[in-house]
Amino acid sequence: MGRFAVIGAGTMGSGIAQVAARAGFDVVLRDVAPEYLDRGLTTIAASLDRDVKKERLTPAQKDEILARIHPTTELAAVKDAEIVVEAIVENFAAKAALFSELDALTRPEAILATNTSSISITKIGAVTKRPTQVIGMHFMNPVPVMPLVEVIRGRATSDATTNAILELGAKLGKTCLIANDFPGFVSNRILMPMLNEAMFALYEGVATREAIDGIMKLGMNHPMGPLTLADFIGLDVCLAILDVLYEGFGDPKYRACPLLRQYVAAGWLGRKTGRGFYEY
Ligand code: 3HC
Questions:
Q1: Considering 38, 47, 86, 214, which has the largest number of Cβ atoms within 10 A of its Cβ?
Q2: Which residues are catalytic?
């Protein structure tokens, strides 16, 4: 695969663009406003600087990687891409509108991938005329560090598309593992109930936030405690995923903790807003 496009220059989109450019791809990075692109490029430069400091990249290599990323606000700039990875807001209507535009705009053989963390790949594919070429590529945050891409096959996704994405993932230096298209796929179906349970433990006064996180970190060897991780992911994102699980399975075990709902209503969305379960 040659030309690579990423739609959305937020945390995930900029991370995906960085990994692709580092693997040697030319990357079109599209967002709706120049300030979002600037923020994304600043994040990428800071992340590459860590590797320069650790002498895993030379300053010249860093510049070459940055030069392979082509920021744009024009959606039409993705028209020659062979693979488009969407990483916009986690909202079905927004993704559906974008995929229908991408379907009209891109070459017929292009693969349209989504980094959605919980929206149905089958539903996204169905808004296009190429559902066999629509697939989930669920990267993990922080994208440059985490080795996994969860590859999600929609009902209609073809073997050829899946194989092309497995090949691409390997070129990006990631391990791809395949899941089928059910709510939360594998990663969030298992992760979110654990984070939710930690929130219930806090809500019910079982322990302090520090104790809950410390017990899971030191006792289970998790890199971050569950409340710290929820703040890192974003509490709005956690709530949206839990709601997808709750609605998709109709099972009360996925009911979001009322404390989470209240924090989101208060605008305490975690690290990105300076306050969540912790203050930043
Ligand atoms: N860019 C590049 N490198 C980065 C980085 C970034 N943004 N953030 C951290 N790193 C690198 C550091 O340079 C360091 O590299 P080194 O060990 O090779 O020198 C390494 O990662 C460790 O970083 P730090 O020493 O600064 O900090 P930690 O040891 O605390 O690690 C962490 C930070 C990697 C974020 C670790 O805490 C962690 O793995 N946390 C859990 C992350 C996780 O679970 N992510 C998945 C979230 S769920 C998700 O994304 C799915 C969605 O659908 C919700």
A1: 86
A2: 117, 138, 150, 188
Residue among 176, 13, 2 nearest 86 (CA): 13
Mean local confidence (pLDDT), 42-68: 97
% pLDDT > 70, the chain = 99
At 1, the pLDDT band (50, 70, 90 cuts) reads low
Residue 116 CB less than 6 A away from ligand 1:
no
Q: What is the pLDDT of residue 63?
A: 97
Token pair in block for residue 176: 């791809």
144 C-beta closer than 6 A to ligand 1: yes
75 CB within 6 A, ligand 1:
no
CA dist., res. 217 & res. 235, Å (int): 19
Region 251-269: mean pLDDT is 98
Global pTM reads: 0.95
- What is the number of other CB atoms lying within 10 angstroms of the CB of residue 279? 8
Alpha-carbon span 75 to 141, nearest angstrom: 25
Percent of the chain with pLDDT over 90: 98
Report how far residue 16's alpha carbon sits from residue 2's, in angstroms, rounded to the nearest whole number.
Answer: 15
Give the gyration radius of the chain's Cα atoms.
19
